[in-house]
Amino acid sequence: MTRENPFDGSITRSKYEKPLANSTQIEGRSSSAVSPQIDRRSSNYSMYDQRKISAAASSTQIEGRESSVSPEVNRRFSKYDQPKMAIESPVKASPIKKAVADQKSFPLVYEFNCNTWLSLEEGSQCTVQEFAPQNAKKELLDSNSYMAQYDVIVKTGLLKDASADVAVSLNVFGTEGDSGFRKLRRLPRDETVRFEAGGDGVHFSIKAVNLGKVTKCVVSLEKKSWDKEWFLDSVEVDVVTKNKGKFFMPCQRWLGRSTKEGQIAWTLVPIPFELVAAKVTSEEPTAVRDTLQLELRSMLTTYTVAVYTGNKQGAGTDAGVYVYLHGELDTSPRFWLKRSQNNKDKFESGNCDTFTCEAKDLGDLKKITIGHTDSGVGSAWYLEFVEVQAYSEGCFWGFPCAKWLAKGEDDGLTERVLEKLDSKCGTFEPWVPYEIVTETSDISGASTDSDIFTVVYGDEACTEQHSLEPSKEARKKRFEKGQKDKFILEMVDVQDIIRKVRIGHANQSSGSGWHLKEMSIRKMLTPPTHCLFYSFTCNRWLDYGKDDRAIVRELIPSAGHKEWVDIATGKLEREDFDMGMQLDTMKKYEIYVYTGKVSGAGTDANVFCTLFGELGDSGERKLAQSATHLDKFEKGHMDQFTIEAVDLGKLFKLKIRHDNSGILGNASWYLDKVEVKDVERNETAVFYAERWLSKDKDKNKHQKIETTLYAKGYEGDKDSASTLTKSFGGSRMSLNSTRFGGSGDPSSPKRRPLREMPLFNGPTVPYTIKVETGGMKDAGTNADAFIVIKGPADKTTGRLPLILLEKEAFEPDCTETFSIQAPDVNDIREITIGHDGVMSSQAWFLKSVEVDMPHQGKNFLFPCNRWLAKDKEDGLLERTISAQDASQSDYKPTPQKKTRRKIAFQGSRSYDMVVETGDIERAGTDFKIQLQFFGANGSSTPLSLSKQEDTLERGNVDSFPINIEDIAPLKKVRVSVEPAGSRTSWFLEKISLRDKKTGDMYVFNCQDWFDLKRKIVKRELPATVKGEQVIKETTYVVYVKTSDISFAGTNANVSVIMFGENGDSDVLNLTKSKTYFDKFERNHVDEFEFPNMLSLGNLLKLRIWHDNAGVFRLGVNASWHLYSVEVLDQSTGKRFRFLCNKWLSKSKDDKMTSRDLICDSVGREHESSTEADYEIVVRTTDKQNASTKNHAFVRLVGNRATSKPLYMINKASMRLFKGGDENKFEFRAENVGKIESILIGHLDKVDGQTGVASKNGGVSAEDKKWHCYDVTVTNAATKDKYTFLVNQWLPLMRNAEDGVKVDASNHEVGMVNALKTLTNVKYQIDVFTGNEKGAGTDANVFVHLFGQNGDSGRQKLTKSFRDLFEKGQRDSFTLEFLDLGKLTKLTIEHDNSGLGAAWYLDKVEVTNLTTGNVTVFPCAKWLDKSKGDNLIKRDLLPRSS
């Protein structure tokens, strides 16, 4: 159905209108059957819901309960329940007797008895009529569907040139429907109406089916009058029929394209006459709007429309731009986007222009229509994106375009309908309007042009900082001497009690000072009659040069009241608040700032600070005038400042910064500490800094000129959980982001949907995701990215946000790492990765995605090398990549706890770790910390603890959740540090770990310094459990015997690492021999002593090597023939011998300078022992009634003996063997040798102790059986681990001889026994340098191989007479180590030396020359401090075969 748009006269067709299989007949002198077209949005629409028919010449429209379409503006009214029919004839027509609507499938018939003219000459001389449906007896079907008369009075304001001859249309809305747009004419043939200023206004009458209570009206100029200017004062609607009341709707605004606001339509809302009479006292033409601006704003929805013009050549336009907002309930009038809030010259290339418009009851926006007039010199326009926010509704919507609106571009359209994009839509907590009035004092120099801002504080919430007048041009008329200024701001709702306000300015120029007399705040309680009012007295300067030089003031209410208009009496009522009950008071805080005594510590920059207490914050204050020094912040000075603020309560945090300004660049500042004294309470909070705030000093990390400090003794939340990383991949632990908006702009409160982590019902596992952006200049994006990981059988993680920390964008040639917990997909089949950036500036070139599944030991590298962009390649914003196109690597998994079977398959443990820094001078650090834990069952993967702003500071107690391999019980931790800032020392008090599962506590005491200058960069700390130190200290004496052959000695530097039951010793340098001055000479035995070392237990292996350095001697280089090494543990008297009898030489034998030596006595002590310690783990299934309340037993059957029964006693106070449980036990028993099987069962009695079942009244049938899943037995000495899969019902047994026999299903050989059989193996290492430009390196390269049997140690890759690691080159090296078994990881690095250190490594291939097995370690990344992820050391995983 076509119709005329009354705003611009264009002919449009509704997209909602579809033919219906029913018929409508309009009977007249010349009747014809027409097929009506209606809005049919519901599939179950029926004529029983039919409520209205409208006809225009040869068209009919039906409105119903579910939906309707207004012929003028394609409007939907799903909330209305109004039966009626409207018929319109735009030309002279015959009289219509009757309209009949029926539906063929239903017997119901609606009749609309018209019997009237639709004519400008005949009858009522009206071309629009509405009728209600009747039955055959001509009775209304609905008592509310009667015809009503609406008398309308349109008044023109008393402004100069307010009168006009204009063509006006009016649409009146009520709770039951709307009238449709009616042309307001005095005479039928009038083209326009003369609206004179003042007087009683112009009267019109409208007949329509009952609209219910009037809720709004829309007044619009018709297109022929757009160039006119008319000042509309108000519209009054009198519902004459049944005397339903009068409705007053003020406007007091101009209409016309050439006016300041440039609008041709306004939405008006009714306010009570009594409210106007009670509050409006002025006779000014705009008095009602000025006085009741807050009331009117609270009854309308203000939409902020942000329009993004593309960043293309010629993208801007000079044409007039307009927009319609289409909601579920209504469509807005045409809004002309005339005055940009942020750009003087709007719609320019690359700009974002913001506009505001008002409407009411639109509902959730579905689409917008935007277009332009195609006028001006450059009318063509490339529109990227439109964003609409409704703060009072708490909603925002995004509408992508990315097309030209131009007759000569694309499809030639200058108007487009844009559908909303769900990923760009969302909600937030709705804001409310505030009326803020400021009064500038009437004294000399009181006025200002500065940007005034405010923050409002309530009991439980506060607003963001908002500018009172963002427009620089508008501020020129604000804040004048003796002037009152009123502002309406939408901000966070602080509820009904306002505790304080903060007001200040930006001090943009030398004349920015301002003297504020007072301010007031008003907010609505129940619009439009009830409101709250607070006033605040100031009478102070906000000026750096006057008073106390503060430009920010905090004010508490001096008076407050609630006021309302009693509609019954018309009186303005008021209830004053008792301000004596005001709990807040103004306080003085003395701030003592101590500048350090180091060289160059002082600064000339401006310093700012913010205090935080239990009751709020002070806002940022400039420390402008020192009470102690004229030249403040100089080396060794203490500067005192005083600020005023509302009571902050107990202080706990301080933010301090400087602006990096100063003469001759003298901005760097070494801040020692800050003390803040609450003068009234006489309490002082101490904040230690002991650091540089500088852009120049901290070269090894992000240079910062601001910091956050916590008060000494504060133990609250510091949110440091994000600082922990594992060395493999360097992945950050995931955090839920609370950041709003893209720029942190407080005027943009919206949530970003792609930043919200989905909620998972079931168990989750960790994923580490690395995203590599291409190296092109425009490859990065600031859009929100996501990934979906999919597995077999529709298993999926769902959409996971990739949230950047401390960054705003994916930068070119960078790799970002994310650690996320999500559902387990078992095996990755494909991934989908994308983003929501619809603008051309948000194009993203994705190079690759790496997904790591540590719980399964799988790593996938997905290549992409495609654009994700609306205007590049195929225009896709997301891409799906199959696992078939990815390279896969496997490694030893660290399985997480799975709850699907309620059996604890747990290969890792979770701990709460606390790191305590000492409370002594300069104890804090900028070090990057690495922790490696050692336990009875091996060592953990190293953890990196990156220094964050508020961690590892003097006196801090920092908490970190960690997850490491299950190596418990823990024995020691190795702590190493490396520089990452200007502070290169750290006093560590202690590290504490609490096992989250068992509650076991481990304390690692240090109470000593790490100091780079003194070369103390590594310490080993023993675990203390229940006050007992787990590992004792000892002294190791190392005897090194050089062989008795020619030229056996060496001048090279020799080092060793000892490996024992308690881990390894780390590197020990054999520097000073106690027996010979010239060490390592032929047939010499050199003695080296290492006191105060943590005991390693029985030694198993020793690695010894030299650096191939030294002077030439008799023509022989650094080659060394080592005969043996012997180590004495002085605490036990035990000696451990390691035979070598080989060369360590680059030119002799196998040309190896490193040897791994096995202890001669390894395993012998355990073999000869008659007893052994065993750890037994028993797991019960989660089947129904699988548990047992009886005692259990196990007998070990080995190749040497069978053990006695090992009883596991079940007590009522500590129930064991419950369904899904894992129970661990430790026994000392006969050494049975290699365990071949076990006998397992359960008994009611053991040594007179009855089971829990018997104590409860006898053994029930359920208690006579037990379903055991499996048993694991570990020899504590050899670490041999045996698994016995039971997985069956075990009956109650009479004695331990009746146990069920279960053979070993798996045997993992421990390190002790494995070492006895290991032999040396040669490995060929092939290093492939990539073909990228500049791929080669001149740096020294090192490799470190890891396998199931151990590691190779760090090995330098060298070769004589060859230029290594050049572009596209393959370099081969042969190294020999003890058999490493299956390779699990390779670490490769370079030392960043040489002129061209950057290196692009393609891959590394390692060949076991004994077995021929080839292991490929793909890389395809830069090792460079300025490319990719800036790493020069990488952990590579083997590609799956």
Distance between the termini: 66 Å
Q: Output mean pLDDT.
A: 83
The fraction of residues assigned to DSSP E strands is: over 45%
Question: Tally of extended strands?
Answer: 100
Helical segment count:
7
Question: Unreliable stretches, pLDDT < 50, 5 or more residues?
Answer: 1-83, 89-98, 100-107, 720-747, 895-906
Helix content: under 10%
Structural class by sheet pairing and helices: mainly beta
Taking all Cα atoms into account, the compactness measure Rg is: 41 Å
Reported for the largest beta sheet, the result is: 11 strands, antiparallel
Task: Tell me the overall shape.
Answer: elongated
Write a compact overview of the structure shown.
The chain is built from seven helices and 100 strands. With 1441 residues, it is mainly beta.
Descriptive overview:
This protein is mainly beta and 1441 residues long. The strands form 22 sheets. Strands 52, 62, 63, 64, 65, 66, 67, 68, 69, 70 and 71 form an eleven-stranded antiparallel beta sheet that branches. Strands 81, 82, 83, 84, 85, 88, 89, 90 and 91 form a nine-stranded mixed beta sheet that branches. A six-stranded antiparallel beta sheet has the order 36-33-38-39-41-42, with helices on one face. The radius of gyration is 41 Å and the shape is elongated.
SSE arrangement:
Layout: E1 2-4, E2 11-13, E3 17-19, E4 22-28, E5 32-34, E6 37-39, E7 50-56, E8 60-64, E9 84-88, E10 96-103, E11 109-116, E12 128-131, E13 147-156, E14 164-166, E15 168-174, E16 177-178, E17 182-184, E18 193-195, E19 202-209, E20 214-221, E21 230-239, E22 245-255, E23 265-268, H1 273-279, H2 287-291, H3 293-299, E24 301-309, E25 321-327, E26 335-336, E27 352-359, E28 365-372, E29 381-390, E30 395-405, E31 415-419, E32 426-427, E33 431-440, E34 452-458, E35 466-467, H4 472-475, E36 484-492, E37 498-505, E38 514-526, E39 530-542, E40 552-555, E41 559-566, E42 571-576, E43 586-595, E44 607-613, E45 616-617, E46 621-622, E47 638-646, E48 651-658, E49 669-678, E50 683-693, E51 706-710, E52 724-726, E53 765-773, E54 785-790, E55 796-802, E56 815-822, E57 830-835, E58 844-853, E59 858-868, E60 878-882, E61 887-890, E62 908-917, E63 928-935, E64 938-939, E65 943-945, E66 957-965, E67 970-978, E68 985-995, E69 1001-1011, E70 1018-1025, E71 1028-1029, E72 1033-1042, E73 1054-1060, E74 1063-1064, E75 1068-1070, E76 1085-1094, ...
Parallel strand pairs: 7-9, 85-89
Antiparallel strand pairs: 1-2, 3-6, 4-5, 4-10, 7-8, 9-12, 10-11, 13-19, 13-21, 14-18, 15-16, 15-17, 15-20, 20-23, 21-22, 24-27, 24-29, 25-26, 25-28, 28-31, 29-30, 30-32, 33-36, 33-38, 34-35, 34-37, 37-40, 38-39, 39-41, 41-42, 43-47, 43-49, 44-45, 44-46, 44-48, 48-51, 49-50, 52-65, 53-56, 53-58, ...
